[in-house]
Amino acid sequence: NSNAQTQKADSLKQQLTLKLPDTSRLNTLVRLGYYYQDSKPDSLLYYAKQVLALAQHMNNLKMISVAYSLIGEYEYITGNYSIALQWLFKSLQLAENINDSSRIANSNNLLGNCYKEYGDYPKAIEHFLECKRIAELSHDTKQNDLFANLNLGEVYALRGVADTALMYAQQAYS
Length: 174
Hints:
mainly alpha; 174 residues
């Protein structure tokens, strides 16, 4: 498994040495950032900054929003929740400005995670429910709706509301 992961990262890095169109380069940088988010957060930040620079150069607002989310995720992973919230709200604001429902849902999910770690469960629930609402409206059940249900289940379990936690966990499972 470790060898396969290394090959995937190596393959993505190899793509960056090619003369890729800017959009393909952005997507590859984002994939590398996500690849490293759990194992090497500093690499996540490195690629997030590259995404931000290239997206700003291209004036690609969607990818600037993605870059803000990646940087926010880095800050969240490293425990800098107040800084993470700043980046994630920038991502959300930009996503709302361009009316990108998937980005709006994703930003709300990430904000909910931050508030959950802060222990501000009502705000976490508010953001997870917004993520879920948008995901259901846009039929995004593969990712954002699944994450919203999982996270809602976790928050309600942390609050000791087992029946509601179970309901959301079952929705995520189905």
